[in-house]
């Protein structure tokens, strides 16, 4: 991977960097695997963070963590502003979530993944001072058709028309939280069905943007870090994403304003990640609709990962077998 004459510019990630970054999410998922179903999400997250940090330290790039993970849940963290990589090579922004779905991992439930996103240095929105974001994600059919400011029923009907589907066939993913009770009611009142997620709205957003899934739209309030990570993936998929920051109180709202964030503002994809040169990798921790989880098969541990690149618009799946004796 090389950089151009402009320090802020970055050539598209080459295959070697892609494989190195996938190794980091693979390592995080494998280290979390012994904690699946053990009821200790902090232990699972800590193991994943340590593994991801160790692998990233060997990669030829100068990464800065713009969107880290941990403060919201008082968990172990790859902290915001931390430099990762060996310092050689291109300057990048990094968004990481060693486990998107720590509660899912602890409970042994589906759809926990280890994720990472990369873009040109200085292009990721630093939304770390506000923990939550209201999001709307669809595939490319939603571009110019839906808008987060419109009622959910109107958006569902418009997207159904654009996709050539009956509203009754539409499936809307939303986190199963008390705060979404009215939203869920409105989705169903519109005639659509819901796909309630216990956790892990990165996978929910990506599935809403992929053409071969049964999810048509992902909506609702989830983590701001997950919103940035999702935006990197959506750019590679040609999909649609909007977000509005949702501070939990006046203090958090003011903290966001002081950090230069806009409240009550609709952030479009290019506001969330101001680059068309994004890179997203995810490895399954537990089985899910996006990727299979970590599995022990005799002497090997099998992982499944997905790699998305906006520059080429490709989706690659990587299945790898790792000698268990090297890991456990």
From TrEMBL:
The keyword Hydrolase applies. It catalyses: beta-D-fructose 1,6-bisphosphate + H2O = beta-D-fructose 6-phosphate + phosphate. Its cofactor is Mn(2+). Substrate binds at residues 100-102, 132, 177-179, 199-201, 223. GO terms for biological process: fructose 1,6-bisphosphate metabolic process; gluconeogenesis; glycerol metabolic process. It holds the Pfam family FBPase_glpX. Pathway: Carbohydrate biosynthesis; gluconeogenesis. One of its GO terms (molecular function) is fructose 1,6-bisphosphate 1-phosphatase activity. Keywords: Carbohydrate metabolism, Hydrolase, Manganese, Metal-binding. Transmembrane segments: none annotated. InterPro entries: FBPase_class-2/SBPase. One of its GO terms (cellular component) is cytosol. Mn(2+) 1 binds at residues 45, 69. Mn(2+) 2 binds at residues 97, 100, 226. NCBIfam families: glpX. Belongs to the FBPase class 2 family. This is Fructose-1,6-bisphosphatase. The lineage of its organism: Bacteria, Bacillati, Actinomycetota, Actinomycetes, Micrococcales.
């Amino acid at each position: 991977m090389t950089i151009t004459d402009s320090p802020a510019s970055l050539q598209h990630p080459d295959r070697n960097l892609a494989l190195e970054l996938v190794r980091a999410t693979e390592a995080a998922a494998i280290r979390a695997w012994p904690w699946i179903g053990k009821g200790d999400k902090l232990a699972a997250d800590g193991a994943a963070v340590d593994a991801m940090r160790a692998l990233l330290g060997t990669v030829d790039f100068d990464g800065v963590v713009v969107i880290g993970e941990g403060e919201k849940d008082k968990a172990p963290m790859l902290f915001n502003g931390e430099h990762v990589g060996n310092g050689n090579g291109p300057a990048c922004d990094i968004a990481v979530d060693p486990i998107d779905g720590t509660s899912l991992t602890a409970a042994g439930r589906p759809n926990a993944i280890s994720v990472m996103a990369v873009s040109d240095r200085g292009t990721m929105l630093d939304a770390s001072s506000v923990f939550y974001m209201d999001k709307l994600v669809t595939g490319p059919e939603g571009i110019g058709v839906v808008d987060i400011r419109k009622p959910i029923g109107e958006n569902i009907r418009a997207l159904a028309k654009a996709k050539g589907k009956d509203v009754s066939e539409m499936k809307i993913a939303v986190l199963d939280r008390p705060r979404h009770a009215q939203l869920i009611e409105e989705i169903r009142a519109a005639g659509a069905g819901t796909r309630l997620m216990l956790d892990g709205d990165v996978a929910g957003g990506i599935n809403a943007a992929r053409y071969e899934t049964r999810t048509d739209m992902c909506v609702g309030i989830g983590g701001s870090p997950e919103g940035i990570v999702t935006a990197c993936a959506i750019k590679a998929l040609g999909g649609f994403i909007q977000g509005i920051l949702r501070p939990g109180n006046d203090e958090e709202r003011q903290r966001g304003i002081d950090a230069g964030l806009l409240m009550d503002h609709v952030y479009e994809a290019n506001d969330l990640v101001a680059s068309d040169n994004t890179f997203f990798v995810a490895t399954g921790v537990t089985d899910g609709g996006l990727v299979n989880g970590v599995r022990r098969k005799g002497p090997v541990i099998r992982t499944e990962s997905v790699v998305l690149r906006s520059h080429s618009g490709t989706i690659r799946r990587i299945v790898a077998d790792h000698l268990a004796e090297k890991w456990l």
